[in-house]
Amino acid sequence: MSRKRVLLVPLDPVHDVGLKMIRRGLDEAGHETILLPPDLPVHEIVQEIVKQRSDTVLVSRTLGYGVAELLANFVDLLDVVGVRSKINLGIGGMAIRPELAAELGFDAGFGPGTTVEEALAFVERREYVEGSQKVVKNKRDLAEGYSYSFRHAGIQAKLNLIVDMILNWAANKTSPGVQRAAIREELWDVQRWRNYESMTDFYNEYKQYCDDLGKNYYEKGILHPKTRRFTKEEINSSEEYVRRTQEVIKTPKLQHNRTKPSVFNQYGTGCPFMDIGHIKVSEAWGADGVVHFDPSWGARTEGFLDGFLTHQEDGTVITPANLNRIKKALEESTLWQVRAHRGLNTPETIVLAGKIGADLTKINIAYGSLGAGTDPARMTVDGIWAIRYAAKYNLPFDVVTNEELCGVPAYKAFAGMLITTALGIRLGGKPILQPLFCKSPEVMVGGQMKDNYVEFNAAKIMALRQIIDAPMWPGAPVGFLTQTEDRVQSSASTAFHASLAAMLGVDAVTIASSDEAYSGGPISVPSKIDTLRAVSEAFRFFGQTPLASTPQMEVWRDSIVSGIDSVLDKIVERGDFVQSLYEGILGNREDGAYPGRNGKDTVTTI
Amino acid sequence: MIARKTIGIAGTAKNTGKTTTTLSLLDYYNTKGVKIGLTSIGYDGETIDNVTGLPKPRLFVRKGLLIVTAEKCLQASSAKIKILENLGIDTPLGKLVCAVVEREGLIVMAGPNQSYHLKNVRDLLFSYGAELIIVDGALGRIAPMVETDGFIMATGASYNLDSHQVAIHAHYLAEICNYPQSAKGLLKDPAWVKLLDSQATVVWNSSGEIVAEVNDLLLNPEQLRPFFNHSSDARGLYCPGLITTQCLKKLIEIPFPRGMTYIFSDPIKLIVGNDLKVTHDFMTKVQQEGSVLGYKHRLPLISITVNPFYPRYRYESDNYETAYIDKGQLLQEVTSLANVPVFDIVNDSCTNLANIIFDTGIQ
Amino acid sequence: MPKILDRIMDAIDFETFLVCNSDEEGRKLMVQLIKEWGFKDVDIVFSQYQGPGSRIRARAYVHRSGDVYGWLELGNEE
């Protein structure tokens, strides 16, 4: 791109700040700029343009009485003098619109809110786009640049022993979930499925490992009572809506001058169409990624249904057709996470998500067993296979620690998270640590957040950083148990937590909507915009300001690290990871953690 | 039949009746079956004025009209329009396209807004079979009219509330455009025509030899200093570019001999940005001294249309309201001073104006 | 032309300040008001009574998940 000679012309009696900002942007981009004094007679300006042999002339002028005639005369002079056809002529100012620019004889008109980038595009004669330029976002690999090397040798050694323990225990075990994942992996071809080719081999094998819900569906076509199929008209309309939206959507960047954290929104209205509506709004208001929420009964059933199904309660049913529709509606740059972390379909979820093209998933054996209702033995066998498939499909997965919400102290939840993480590293996966930023029962009782929400949350990140070099994604969402039904309070709290995450330099953050604490009905789309706007403003406010460490943070950091170490000691001593889960070493009844019962006695020995 | 002409419709200000004049001509030629090409150097057909916020006449067009307008204007048009060709010329409202109206309706126009592009647009419309091209103007913009064969000037209360001032201005315009002759007839020797290819402002002697030359653009009176030294042997002067009011004043002071020949590129170069009184005074003085004035390219002012409407600015509410001055007086004063046919385009039939376009000396 | 309400993606919220004597009264009046306007699926999302009255937000769902959404039909119009 060649260096342009740009003449900046304030036709107003005073210098316009906008013009000065644009000048700075143009200078930074390597162009030669001359800023004329304000309010010169038009003849003198024309002379200057001829003398300077400018390529581009940017005029700023606020519209007012008689100004249109003045500008028209200026353009006429340029035309008569013969320079009009040689220059790129733009005008900016209050009340300037493209129609007026056309009428006055300019090449472009820039109203209030014009970005420097827009002016730069004009100067460099790149395609003129009315309004702001579409931000070109790229997908970011959240795990990129991390070595996964341990910084705490003691913890590393104990984790290695525990990983050996787990793999030895599971070596000769399987479950219906593992079997279905294997069948899905071998016999279900996404291309053949997309082409409506016969998949009889797959269905015949698959249904044997499903419970009654799946068997009824595949043998008799009976749906779950809360689901229905879409009509052809609904499907056509949805495709049309997506097409129209994709044509015009703009995807702004929220992080201002930072590159991190990527901001994730959750969706799971129950209906894939409504989900698509929510996703397009999240994207248009700057979310970098979206997280698929499935209904809670999805964790308790053996096997997936198929078909394009809507569901009348929270959570969108995972079926190949639903995931495929949602995938097709996403912008190219949007990261897509399909959660597999809990329940009886964990490994198969990853196979399906991998084949359909998800970017990320979610696995945690400890949380799945203690906070999400799955039998620890079953969760462990299924978890190992889930991690293997995540590695195969190159899906980084976060290791969520929501058992903290039940009352499990952070250090115990983190010990469980680190075990799944170490297992993930051993099996070739890319785990992402997911500590909660929340007002947990632990701090409500212990008083760690009596003064502020900053120090204890920061201490969590510092503790994990002291142990391992790994990506981090506080969630999910941040600010759990701090939000109320007041959308202003809720948005503010979310924005502060997201800013804390940004200042701590983490890789991603999941944010809730301002309806987070409202339980009377589905989350509404404007409530998603509330928090995205709030986070955007908070990121703008703090910019790249770093967070200073405090003595209190260091105290809590050290106590978390030693707490983790002591939990791992106990598991090593116990010599059996699965029994440790049953017995409460990673969270007991007193902590509000109960070993799950779903899938109990379904693990079989090969 | 008309032999391929381009007519411009300029205005002395906004709201002087350009669009009304255009509509009236479109209607007339439609009944006569003349193939019209329409373009605009501004933005026409919008419901509300960009500056005053007052309602404007909409551009209603009929089947078969050829137009050149910006892509984004098509979306705002109710007429059914078929795109014939994309010209690849950028405007703030997208690329220019050449199109034909397939079903009558309203259109919005924003065409080429500089002379350089208007030339290409004109040639293209002719190639699609246009017999007469109408170029709708913009605000007080007149420069692109240089690419037409003659133009109509719309004026009225929007230019000045005093109808006498409107009439004087119209008089000056008519004189400046129509009085000077074609340059070729003024040159003593036909071979001297090469003087008019000069890229500089030149002064020649009785043998047609250039004795002094300065810049093509006469913006600053200081530029004319060299001509003072050669004033006595000067017989002619040619300026290919713009000349400002200050330079015209200075030019009058140079003691050139009587019987000089002054040639300018076209009337636009004497009008744009200038005080027309000074230009007119210059012409009068030249005449008194027995000198002659000519244009390399003539650009006749065919007719003047008058409009008593104006948007009245209201300070208390910072907006505009519709208002009129005396219609009869405006028409009478302008007719008496301007030496061209004058019409009240809202009330008069367009036939006379159209006949003048037929009859005018446009080649 | 479908109803403008069909264009609401999911819910419409009404947020205001009601002069009332208690939180309960505010909630009751707000629900009554929104129902008078013809909405059926009404709930109070948030209410905060402080003495001068209640800052209150009511919500009416126009499209719940699984319904047939009016806004999806827009593409089929002229």
Order of helices and strands of chain C: EHEE
CATH class category of the largest domain in chain B: Alpha Beta
Low-confidence segments of chain C:
none
At CATH level 2, the architecture of chain C is 2-Layer Sandwich
Structural class of chain B: alpha/beta
Distance between the termini of chain B: 13 Å
In the residues of chain B, how many domains can be counted?
Answer: 2
- And the CATH topology of the largest domain in chain B? Rossmann fold
User: How many E strands of chain C?
Assistant: 3
Q: Estimate percent helicity of chain B.
A: 25-40%
Coarse shape of chain C:
elongated
SS strand fraction of chain C: 25-35%
The largest contact between protein chains, plus residue counts on each side, is: A-B, 35 and 39 residues
Could you provide a short overview of the structure?
Chain B is 27% helix and 28% strand. Chain B is of the alpha/beta class and 363 residues long. Chain B folds into two domains: 5-177 and 299-359, Rossmann fold (3-Layer(aba) Sandwich), CATH 3.40.50; 182-295, Cytidine Deaminase, domain 2 (3-Layer(aba) Sandwich).
Give a description of the structure:
In chain A, 47% of the residues lie in helices and 12% in strands. Chain A has 24 helices and 18 strands. In chain A, the strands form 5 sheets. A 7-stranded parallel beta sheet of chain A has the order 14-13-12-11-9-8-17. A 5-stranded parallel beta sheet of chain A has the order 2-1-3-4-5, sandwiched between helices. In chain B, helix 6 links the parallel strand 13 and strand 14. In chain B, 49% of the residues are buried. By secondary structure, chain B is an alpha/beta fold. The model of chain B has no long low-confidence stretch (mean pLDDT 89). The longest helix of chain B has 16 residues. Chain C has 78 residues and is an alpha+beta fold. Chain C has one domain: Defensin A-like (2-Layer Sandwich). Chain C is built from 1 helix and 3 strands. Chain C has a 3-stranded antiparallel beta sheet with strand order 1-3-2, with helices on one face. The longest helix of chain C is centred in the middle third of the chain and has 14 residues. Chain C is elongated and about 45 Å long. Classes of the chains: A alpha/beta (606), B alpha/beta (363), C alpha+beta (78). Chains A and C meet through helix 11 and helix 12 of A and strand 2 and strand 3 of C.
